[in-house]
Amino acid sequence: MPLLPPSRTEPDGSAVIRVLSYNIRSMRDDTAALARVIGACAPDLVLLQEAPRFFRWRKKLARLAAASGQVILTGGGTAAGPAILCGLRATVERTEDVLLPLTPGLHRRGFATAVVRFGDARLGVLSCHLSLSGRERLAQGGLLLDRLAALGTEHAVVGGDLNERPTGRTFRRLAGGLQDGWATAPWGGEHTSTPADPHQRIDAVFATRGVEVLGCGVPLDQPGVTGTDLRAATDHLPVLAALRIPARPGTAPGAA
């Protein structure tokens, strides 16, 4: 299978970027393997779920970012687990961590969000980890779409652990308003859970309609990513997507 295209800026001002979504189980597993997987995927944005959020969580997340060639953009403990890392190619406009309504007896959930630019291409970004409860998860899906619209960007990307397969109500709701990366341009592996026995797709990257999905899936054949590291790093497999983000109107070369 051909590799996903590398990050680049096109002559028309659009940006090809690589986005990785990954549930890292609070870094309770082999963190060296985790950093190797992230680094080998050469992402521009890393949308994490279950980032460390308790004792010294910032230091743990900073170590992972440094070891994988990234910097912390936002999230972690302040978003109840979701976080965003980025490479130095990204220019950050703003960030916001959002805590969702708490259902008694269930875990607190949140969104890590940002608005970034890659040259003349502007992008809203959201990392999420939805509830194990179907009822709460469906409500969170609606809140996710509302939050994405509130970012005020024409183009946006979402990565997350949905705790639901594509046939589920929340997954279908998101896929009805956004492009499901794997369904749009399948590449690599499909199933994200579990690394030892991949049998279901519960993690995904979504993009708004104006974004071109060049390929999306589990990076099984990505150079530098080994099966040993994927099994050791965490209890999910990552999802890697290559996306082409259009330049903002009036910013492309030759625009009037």
From TrEMBL:
One Pfam family it belongs to: Exo_endo_phos
Molecular function (Gene Ontology), one example: endonuclease activity
Domain Endonuclease/exonuclease/phosphatase span(s) in chain numbering: 20-236
InterPro entries xrefs: Endo/exonu/phosph_ase_sf (IPR036691), Endo/exonuclease/phosphatase (IPR005135)
Membrane-spanning segments: none
Highest taxon listed in the record's lineage: Bacteria
Keywords on record: Endonuclease, Hydrolase, Nuclease
Name the record gives this protein: Endonuclease/exonuclease/phosphatase family protein
Originating organism: Streptomyces doudnae
